[in-house]
Amino acid sequence: MRILFICTGNTCRSPMAEAILNHRDEPHIEVRSAGLFAMEGGMASHNAQQVLEENGLTHDHRSHTVTQSDVHWADYVFAMTSSHKAMLMEQFPFAADRIFTLKEFSSERGLDVSDPYGGPVEVYRSTFNELNRLMDSMLKNLNKQEQGGF
């Protein structure tokens, strides 16, 4: 199963989500991340890297703008906000049935994962914790869907 996480610049939320899922023991899952407006080859934000390190996660990340080939590759595309989802649906209508907000797919209230960009490290920690929690629900719902019960 191939999962693609999308945020705005591919420097905070989506690379943290990618790192969190990569460090779970899920050998049947491949994961990537991209941004709608990423600067190609940029590093994850300093605070995102710090929070990942604090949690024992390593992630050699370079930002990347989402492409049609990325979306074709993915079985599921998880956007961090409803506006990201809307833009993805407009750009890649062929994948409409595979595009969700992460919270929507995880059966969480609200649709948007909070954006820590520009905030202090505490805000990044909060977003990390939110993403970590969402991974549990997402994996549970993926398993249900794969078994035909979602």
Automatic annotation (TrEMBL):
Protein family per UniProt: Belongs to the low molecular weight phosphotyrosine protein phosphatase family.
Listed name of the protein: Protein tyrosine phosphatase
Membrane-traversing stretches: none
Residues annotated as catalytic: 7, 13, 115
Keywords attached to this entry: Hydrolase, Protein phosphatase
Keyword Hydrolase part of the UniProt annotation: yes
InterPro entries: LMW_PTPase, Ptyr_pPase, Ptyr_pPase_sf, Tyr_phospatase_low_mol_wt
GO molecular function: protein tyrosine phosphatase activity
Upper lineage: Bacteria, Bacillati, Bacillota, Bacilli, Bacillales
Stretches assigned to the Phosphotyrosine protein phosphatase I domain: 1-141
